[in-house]
Amino acid sequence: TSPRVFWSPPCRKHLVLSERGTADRQDLSRDALLALGAGLRAVADRAEASREALREQAYDHDCDRITATGHSLGGTVAVHLGTAMNDVDLRLAAVHAFNPGGLPDLSRSLACLTSAAEVHVHHIDGDLVSSGFLPFQRQRYARAVGSEA
Fold first, then answer.
1. Which residue from 50, 38, 147 is spatially nearest to 102, judged by alpha carbons?
2. Looking at residue 121, what is its pLDDT?
3. Residues in the chain with pLDDT values less than 50
4. Residues 1, 40: Cα–Cα separation, whole Å
5. Distance CA 19, CA 75 (A)
6. Which pTM was predicted?
7. What is the pLDDT of residue 140?
8. Cα 75 to Cα 104: distance, rounded to the nearest angstrom
9. Chain centre to alpha carbon of residue 142
10. pLDDT value of position 49
11. Cα-Cα-Cα-Cα dihedral of 126, 140, 37, 70, to 10°?
């Protein structure tokens, strides 16, 4: 199955890329590299495949705005796209990463602050996996009682 899906409501001229989290052995390897401090290099290959798929989708759809989103590993990929895509003809307007993984990384945090895309990191309290994004960059949410898995 594909690690990404696209959604594009024609009346809004908005293309949304959604990256899934960990689902296979390759993704587990990426998670392990993130846990060891490899940073965005751990997801560079998946991000490059997403960039190419995004380019095809943007060509097929008449869109004025592109947003990337993802959860966990997918959120890390979305952040990588938002901070690394400098294509003149293809730019992300926004990134919404939900509980992205990784260790604290000052260069990633600075890249998020200086990115042309608006990077929003959403963190649910108590999730240690996404604690790697520095506090000044994330929106925090209390865990809803009764919503535990």
1. 38
2. 87
3. none
4. 23
5. 7
6. 0.86
7. 67
8. 15
9. 21
10. 94
11. 100
Residue 134 has a pLDDT of 59
Q: What are phi and psi of 52, to 5 degrees?
A: -65, -40
69-91 confidence digits (pLDDT tens): 999 999 999 999 998 876 666 78
HEC string of the chain equals CCCEEEECCCCCCEEEEEECCCCCHHHHHHHHHHHCCCHHHHHHHHHHHHHHHHHHHHHHCCCCEEEEEEECHHHHHHHHHHHHCCCCCCCCCEEEEECCCCCCCHHHHHHHHHCCCEEEEEEECCCCCCCCCCHHHEEEECCCCCCCC
Q: In what order do the strands lie in the sheet with 14-19?
A: 4-7, 14-19, 65-71, 94-98, 118-124, 138-141
7 DSSP β-pair partners: 16
pLDDT at res. 74: 94
CB contact at 8 A, 111 and 83:
yes
